[in-house]
Amino acid sequence: MASRRIDVYLICGGDYHDFDFARVELLKLLQEHERIRVRVAEDYSNTQAIADADCLISYTCNIVPSDGDQKVLKDFLETGKRWFALHGTNSIIEWLSAKPLKIDTPRSAPVFMEMLGSQFFAHPPIAKYSVQVSSPVHPLVAGIEPFETEDELYLAEYHGDNIPLLHCEYKGSIPEFVHSEWTGEDPHLVFYLHAYGGGEVLYLTLGHCRGRYDMPPLMDEYPRVERCSWELPVYYELLRRGICWAAGL
For the chain, how many structural domains are there in total? Predict the structure, then answer.
């Protein structure tokens, strides 16, 4: 008797990123598993598709579900299902001014962020930084060595009892963001598990990507293409492990 199919709902969309690139790369990884079948969306509005899915994967930026959509996501997790959340899923971004640049990340969707276990608050300019392994014996990171990446270093507010898998360090001032001052007292989670209800969220902050035409209305053409951690084999290994975890493979 053949094993049953696994229905994955992939949400990939939003602002300021090359979602075409990320969507294709994630679909290629999902295609490695014969049992997986995928539906794709840009936001959380198809609540029936979310409810019907066996697991959820999201790569978004500035996409906040409505109160009704959040209720469906909450029910999804409370039934014991899994959600693999990537990069900017936990972001709410409001541009207060362009010159000087000032960005707010308001706490306007607390239930959503409690489900995810964190809310993005700021990141310094893209630069190289070291990623450390927090729980070396955990199966999701077993055999992963500390590595260096060039990516957005996510600084966040955390909710609940997260299990850290990877982390990094940062201390400094980021004047472009309302949440500008970071003391470096605590590590910043790069990869973590967050239990919610009977289900669980796996969050990976790495994976910024941007093409030349992904910044309207701020600018018509961005000066460069950014691929960041997508250029590292270790990032694809983390994605593969996360997909297997979410799908129960």
Answer: 1
Q: Please check whether residue 127 lies inside any domain of the structure.
A: yes
Spatial separation of the C-alpha atoms in residues 187 and 230, rounded to whole Å:
23
Helix and strand numbers (H, E) in the chain are: 5, 15
In a domain, 224, yes or no: yes
Burial of 244 (0-12, 13-18, 19+ CB in 10 A): middle
How many other C-beta atoms can be found within 10 angstroms of the C-beta atom of residue 16? 17
Does any domain span residue 211? yes
How many Cα atoms occupy the beta-carbon half-sphere of 186 within 13 Å?
A: 8
Inside any domain, residue 1: no
Task: State the Cα–Cα distance between residues 71 and 124, nearest whole angstrom.
Answer: 33
pLDDT tens, 131-180? 999 999 999 999 999 999 999 999 999 999 999 999 999 999 999 999 99
Segment 17-44, tens digit of pLDDT: 999 999 999 999 999 999 999 999 999 9
Instruction: For residue 57, give its domain range.
Output: 6-247
Tell me, yes or no, if the pTM score tops 0.85: yes
CATH number for the domain spanning 201: value is 3.40.50.880
* Sign of the CA dihedral with 132 first, then 162, 117, and 107 last: negative
∠227-143-140 over CA atoms, to 5°? 70
